[in-house]
Amino acid sequence: MSLAPWLDACPIVAILRGIRPEEAEAVGAALLAEGLNVIEVPLNSPRPFESIRRLAAAFGDRALIGAGTVTTEEEIAGVVRAGGRLMVTPHADPALVLAARARGLIACPGFLSPAEAFALLGAGADALKLFPAEMASPSVVRALLAVLPKGTAILPVGGMSAQTIPAWKAAGAAGFGVGSALYRPGDSAEAVAARARALREAVGFA
Asked: Which of 98, 140, 102 is nearest to 121 (CA)?
């Protein structure tokens, strides 16, 4: 299992921070209808494992569903029990990458420095989340890709929107984690769909 085919289909990771389980399926359906098929539920959302379970049950055959803000091995186990297949962390912890891979999850850990990037790749990370991207720039991505192993996928997260994504894409970013520019707690499925459409156009997948 790899993240690459999902990013090839559409390089946007939908971050549904704050979503409630009763909203998850309607929002998930809206995202898939617009071609966004990687969905992350941060674990600091209300009852996140239930949202992951509902999304995985409804869309797991055609979407990559997983958890963000993962910080412990116990949480990794919870993701697996809920049917998730993706682990995203906010920080650089090779031990969590190893634990996720051992359980068959795709691992996309957070990093901010070259040292962290190399350590995470050494542990088997499938892709790297550049976070918070507001502390970096597209030129940082370009410089990192010059020294990281060929084919390394960097996904900036933080400040991603239809307006900012094109510069990061031009620098070589393989994907983009989008949170508040796509979904805010209480948003309707229709509002999410409209934003998803604009984001897809921004990355050239209209």
From this structure: 98
Instruction: Assign residue 3 a region (left: φ > 0; alpha: ψ between -120 and 50; beta: otherwise).
Output: alpha
Sketch the domain layout of the chain as residue ranges.
4-202
Eight-state DSSP code of residue 157: B
The predicted-structure confidence for 138-195, as pLDDT tens digits, reads as follows 999 999 999 999 999 999 999 999 999 999 999 999 999 999 999 999 999 999 999 9
Q: How far is CA 108 from the centre of its chain?
A: 7
Cβ neighbours of residue 8 closer than 8 Å, sequence gap 6 or more? none
Q: Which residues are catalytic?
A: 40, 129
Residues 74-110 as b or e (16 or more Cβ within 10 Å = b) = ebbebbbebbbbbbbbbebbbebbebbbeeebbbbbb
Output the pTM of the full model.
0.97
CATH of domain 4-202: 3.20.20.70
- pLDDT tens-place string over residues 82-96: 999 999 999 999 999
- For residue 72, how far is the Cα from the chain centroid? 18
CB distance 162 to 198 below 8 Å: yes
